[in-house]
Amino acid sequence: MRHALSLAARGLGQVAPNPAVGCVIVKEGRVVGRGWTQRGGRPHAETVALIQAGDAASGATAYVTLEPCAHHGQTPPCAEALVKAGIARVVCAIEDPDPRVSGRGFEILRDAGLFIITSVMEKQARDLNEGFFQNRSANRPRVTLKIAQSLDGRIAAANGESKWITGEDARRFGHLLRAKHDAILVGIETALADDPDLTCRLPGLEDRSPVRVVLDSMLRLPVSSKLAKTAKQVPVIVYTLSEPRADLVALGVEIVQVAEAGGHPSITAVLGDLAARGITRLLVEGGAGMHAAFLDAGAADRLEVFHAPALLGGVGRPAVSALSAAGLGMAPRFERLTLRQLGDDVLETLAAKA
Q1: Strand residues in 172-285 grouped as ranges (E)
Q2: Number of Cβ within a 10 Å radius of residue 211
Q3: Dihedral angle at the C-alpha atoms of 313, 314, 318, 324, nearest 10 degrees?
Q4: Is-catalytic flag, 46?
Q5: Of these residues, 28, 46, 168, 206, which one is catalytic?
Q6: Is the pLDDT reported for residue 326 higher than 70?
């Protein structure tokens, strides 16, 4: 199952609105087939593994990270495919929350006489597809805030200079994070100050750039910006309170008017719209106002904080602007999951406490 989960992770950022699933088929102590959900969500992991296994699937055991699907869509149900291939036993990590499945996949397998084992490495499987589960249960994607900061929590010097606080290893890892997310979001101030591409530029992963999202209350995004000029190559969605601009639309920018909250696009409305589009994993890259908005909305599930061994002082720009929390008792709390050395920098990964 651990191997199946590692295979499933290869699909992160590429399979939405589907979950990232891995499947390993074992017979007589030997792996005869393996697969993971392919780009765009098809074919499913089980289909890929069964094709690789061929006749060896008969009498074998399938290890699957998510309950095999039970509904007819673009392809027949994976549960039926496992039965047809002669699989004898299925070991599964977790039930699929999709109402079209939700136990029916297991039912098909049991009715066909297969031996079923469930809840194997369930926590790891839930963590892997947390965005898919939240999309179904909470109508929003999993949100990760990415922060590159100095030791004293500053993301830019007093003059606004921020390139580069972290070193090359940390920046490469940041691009890997982009490749593993369905969408990436910044506020208009970051878009104006940095004119970012927001693409993945790791060699070999250039085609894994996420959908790019900008929160822009007054619709100030320039037509000369890199985002606008490349919108037909990599999608750009702008959430705004203003009427659409024809010049941006002509360049391929999608403009979406949403409800207002405190003079800005409502975070809840934005996340709901992204979820409806099938987005399951959203990476927020700032700036400080965006970080604060998501924290105040209770919509920051993970933090990826890159700590650079530098001090910028009190006049530097903070990683997070003012929060609504009035005291320590109301402050957003996180638990540390991992610490990782990246060159001279340290990456701290944290998850929101329930």
Answers
A1: 183-187, 211-215, 236-240, 254-257, 260-261, 264-265, 281-284
A2: 20
A3: 150
A4: yes
A5: 46
A6: no
The reported pLDDT for the residue numbered 57 is: 97
Q: At which residue do the structure tokens 């939700």 appear?
A: 102
Q: How confident is residue 124, by pLDDT bands cut at 50, 70 and 90? A: very high
Q: Smallest Cα–Cα separation from 4: which of 176, 87, 125, 85?
A: 125
Main-chain dihedrals φ then ψ at residue 236, nearest 5 degrees: -130, 130
Task: Give the chain's length.
Answer: 354
Q: Coil, helix or strand for 211?
A: strand
* CA–CA separation, 156 and 168 (whole Å): 17
Where does the pLDDT of residue 324 fall: very low under 50, low under 70, confident under 90, or very high at 90 and above? Answer: confident
Helix, coil or strand: residue 104: helix
Tell me which residue has tokens 């994993």. 281
Q: How many CB atoms lie within 10 A of CB 202?
A: 15
Which residues on adjacent β-strands are paired with residue 108?
A: none
For the cut 80, the answer to whether the pLDDT of residue 3 exceeds it is yes
Task: For 24-52, write each residue's pLDDT tens digit.
Answer: 999 999 999 999 999 988 899 999 999 99
Tokens coding 283: 């990476």
User: Each residue of 170-219: pLDDT tens digit?
Assistant: 999 999 999 999 999 999 999 998 899 999 999 988 889 999 999 999 99
Distance from CA of residue 44 to its chain's centroid? 19
Average pLDDT over residues 254-259: 97
Q: Starting from the edge strand earliest in sequence, which strands make up the sheet with 183-187, in order? A: 254-257, 236-240, 211-215, 183-187, 281-284, 142-149, 302-307, 345-352, 334-342
CB 296 within 8 A of CB 145: no
CA gap 123, 72 in Å, rounded:
28
pTM of the model: 0.93
Nearest CA-CA partner of 293 in 328, 268, 257, 330: 268
Q: What angle do CA 61, 18, 24 make, to 5 degrees?
A: 20
